[in-house]
Design a protein that fits this description.
342 residues; alpha/beta; Quinone Oxidoreductase, Chain A, domain 1; Rossmann fold; 6-stranded parallel beta sheet; 12 helices; 15 strands
């Protein structure tokens, strides 16, 4: 099988001799990948900011077609087009039942390997095929009329952005979004869908600000950003972005920190949080749970995923994978999201 392999920080290679995935448990399914994504959080191990086992197929964003199912799988069958939610989930434990599927007691993250070796590797989607554990609850059939590009954004970026905005409990007033990568731009679109009419989108890269303008936001660089916002979504990640979020948040405001965290401390100091009576919400988005809320709206056309604004480098072959990682890590101008078609 062909795919990409993570060999350590700065080392992604293409291989054409990878062992085929197989059904190892009756709850597993095999999915032939039709499209995979390169996500900003894929860069954390690549840039050495997050420990990860080597020898793993990276990538937690994939859509494809089911080719085989274990004996206990009943919700999907061979031939179904499916969204592979970026974490596995059982759908039955207390966390799944409460809507926190991303922290399922049996859940695991695709494309990331425990560096201690305590758990076996769960290979990701940047290959021709992958095995999906807990397939009944993890896989979601793609609604009719939804193309692969849009479905790919539903594996992570758009539900993550929706969750980031929804958990602020916004009711009125302006909203700021810091960081205009795939999640930040999706957050602008989600906020508009949820009724926010005044959005300030903040990023140092001009091409990303232009994309946000097309989605209905006004924009600023981090140095230019001013104002007082009851709600701020921080989708960039570094402590400096959180400091800016705290500076922009109004007294009594809510900051939703959705970016994956690798620093030891938040950039928001306790004194500022106390003096402003800030509410700070953070943590991994429960994408599988959120899909149940957003898919009906997408199916009937009342919610639009900003696919063309987010995917800037579509349908690249697996052989381009190492170069795509290098370009993404170098923050090449105009590059927001790349997709890989095996």
């Amino acid at each position: 099988m062909r795919g990409l392999i993570f060999d350590g920080p700065g080392e992604i290679r293409f291989a054409d001799d990878i062992a085929e995935p197989t059904i190892g448990h009756p709850a597993d399914a095999i999915v032939e990948v039709t499209l995979a994504g390169l996500c900003g959080s894929d860069l954390h191990p690549y840039e050495g900011r997050e420990a990860c086992a080597t020898g793993i197929i990276p990538g937690h964003e994939a859509v494809g077609v089911v080719t085989e199912t274990g004996a206990h799988v009943s919700t999907v069958q061979a031939g179904d087009r499916v969204i592979v939610a970026f974490t596995t989930s059982c759908g039955r434990c207390d966390r799944c039942a409460s809507g926190l599927s991303s922290r399922c007691r049996s859940g695991r993250l695709f494309g990331w390997g425990d560096p201690t070796g305590a758990q076996p590797l769960l290979h990701g989607g940047q290959a021709e095929r992958l095995c999906v554990p807990l397939a009944d609850a993890t896989l979601v059939p793609i609604p009719d009329g939804v193309d692969d590009d849009t479905a790919l954004l539903l594996t992570d970026n758009f539900p993550t952005a929706w969750h980031a905005v929804a958990r602020t409990d916004w009711t009125e007033g302006p909203l700021a979004v810091i960081g205009l990568g795939a999640v930040g731009l999706c957050a602008v679109a989600a906020a508009r869908s949820l009724g926010v009419t005044e959005i300030l989108a903040i990023d140092p890269i001009e091409s990303r600000r232009r994309a946000a303008i097309q989605l209905g936001a006004s924009t600023a660089t981090p140095d230019e950003a001013t104002g007082s916002f009851p709600t701020v979504v921080e989708a960039a990640g570094p402590p400096a972005a959180q400091r800016l979020a705290a500076a922009l948040a109004d007294v009594g405001g809510t900051i939703s920190i959705i970016a994956v965290q690798t620093a030891d401390v938040f950039g928001i100091d306790p004194v500022t949080a106390y003096e402003k009576n800030l509410t700070i919400r953070s943590g991994r988005a429960p994408v599988r749970s959120v899909l149940d809320a957003v898919l009906p709206h997408i199916s009937v056309g009342s919610l639009t995923v900003p696919t063309s604004s987010v995917i800037t480098h579509p349908n690249r072959p697996l052989t381009d994978g190492p170069g795509l990682y290098r370009a993404f890590a170098a923050r090449h101008a105009g590059m927001i999201k790349a997709t890989i078609r095996p």
